[in-house]
Structures
1.
Amino acid sequence: MIFFLVVMVGIQFIPTNPNQSDVVPDTDFMLVNKVPSKIRGIIEVSCYDCHSNNTKYPWYNKIQPAAWYLESHINEGKSVLNFNEWGTLSDRRKKSKLKSIKSQIKNGKMPMQSYTFIHKDATLSGDDRTYIAKYLQELSSSIK
Ligand code: HEC
């Protein structure tokens, strides 16, 4: 028990690398596609913490091991999809990512449940899912 407490206190002092760049590059998904503000709002709140270079850190990020858990999701999430770097993808990659984003949203896999459990505002309603899926489909059709 004492050992456990010492470890828990000890790990609080190990720093993490904040994922915070205040710069929104020209290659950002929202800018490249001139995304309508309603969709933009939803995706930024629900997805950008893990899929961009700028995380709005929650209170629990001050506590280990929660901060590591979030950090690992950010690193993994960014490596498969970074909305800030959208413009750097080829048209083929854009289309395949759009398909994957659409299916993750439609199937309710994203945003991750472990995340929406705390971030209630990131939860997507059925209407949100349908609305975004339709938009993504149109966007995909507009890419040759
Ligand atoms: C808490 C962090 C987190 C949030 C929030 C989040 N994701 Fe993810 N996402 C991940 C992680 C981690 C992976 C990789 C592991 C996996 O697929 O489960 C991933 C994988 C994906 C993939 C698969 C990428 C590929 O091509 O293989 C897509 C698409 C995706 N996310 C879209 C979204 C969308 C859209 C949202 C918002 C509606 C979102 N994510 C919100 C962490 C997150």
Note: The mean pLDDT is 96.
2.
Amino acid sequence: MTLSTEPTPVLGELLDLTGRVALVTGAGQGVGAATAHMLAAQGAAVAVNDFFPERAEQVAAAIGGRALGVQADVCDPAGVAAMVDTIECELGPVDILVNNAGNAGATHSAADRTPAFWESQPSDWAPWIDINFTGVMIATRAVLAGMVHRGHGRIVTVISDAGRIGEADLIVYSGAKAGAAGFTRAIAKAAGPHGVTANCVALGGVRTPAIAHLLANEEFVKRAVRAYPVGRLGEPTDPAALITFLASDAAAWITAQTYPVNGGFSVAL
Ligand SMILES: NC(=O)c1ccc[n+]([C@@H]2O[C@H](COP(=O)([O-])OP(=O)(O)OC[C@H]3O[C@@H](n4cnc5c(N)ncnc54)[C@H](O)[C@@H]3O)[C@@H](O)[C@H]2O)c1
């Protein structure tokens, strides 16, 4: 066995995404928008997807340069395939996929009351499963063949601590996010030999429009923050930084993992 005599790479160079094309789903606001901005700042051309075209366009315009707003419902396989075709024509093949769209989906709100699981109907589960699990598979499938063919790709799936440790108020969401993590691990194993890595980032509470109804309640926020050793909720740039790292060459030997970004709310061993 010979040991490498290569010079130590410079981290800043490994984080450079110049020449890469990224697709961030649900990037019209919140964590996805911050991630799109950060990937672009590292040099990537970024396709900003959202269900709502005006959100996607607004974020792409704010990024400027080689950013492109692309409307699609990530739960619709035909719409996602058409979106990927558009991205390939306008920006080039997708090197980086960030499966970010989640929560209760585009047409439901995380603020909607969810019945206790034992009182729920299977029809109550669909919005959570569609966006947090099926949508992740649909978007991944749409770009993975190209990544495998080109011998390079990065997939980062945004899950929740609910999917790692379980949330009593978010039972179906917890299951769907855990499913997305299991799927991402299996993709890592299948596509690893083809130069594709796949990882998850698991979030605690992050200040985005999705939880505006909770943030509006000062007492709730004060109580919630006590569960976070760093003494605050997350900002969208907190997960965006790790997602950008995992999308870069710096993370070439990291795959099939789930990393919490949660201010210490829960721990991973
Ligand atoms: N905010 C939090 O506290 C928190 C906590 C844990 C996990 N997460 C996860 O982080 C990710 C981002 O959360 P956020 O709070 O930034 O989200 P958000 O709800 O604020 O924004 C999500 C964006 O996704 C878009 N979207 C929804 N359904 C879509 C679909 N079917 N197709 C395309 N776009 C769609 C929405 O229009 C919206 O603009 C989600 O996966 C969420 O589950 C968030």
Note: DSSP finds ten helices and seven strands in the chain.
